[in-house]
Design goal:
four-stranded antiparallel beta sheet; about 0% helix; four-stranded mixed beta sheet; about 80 residues; mainly beta; OB fold (Dihydrolipoamide Acetyltransferase, E2P)
Length: about 80
């Protein structure tokens, strides 16, 4: 960048897979609008975990006929 310092881009990708254990506040997805927040997940562009637990994915059909993939967390009992 001319006249300034360039910052490296953050990786836009899925950070976790199904069945993986996550901690509270851990980033699950960054910059992919394909995935939506489900149970115990929050965020718009960056989805993060609201509690510790196991990740699982669900697919639901919208009223317009499109499929949406939701990222959910099954909380662990502590």
């Amino acid at each position: 960048m001319a006249g300034g310092k360039s910052t490296p881009k953050k990786d836009k990708m899925l950070k976790v897979s199904s069945g993986q254990q996550v901690k509270t506040g851990q980033i699950l997805v960054r910059g992919i609008p394909l995935y939506k927040a489900g149970l115990n997940v929050n965020g718009q562009g960056i989805l993060f975990a609201l509690c510790a637990g196991k990740v699982y994915f669900t697919r639901k059909k919208t009223s317009h006929g499109k499929f949406r993939t939701f990222i959910n967390i099954n909380p662990t009992k502590s």
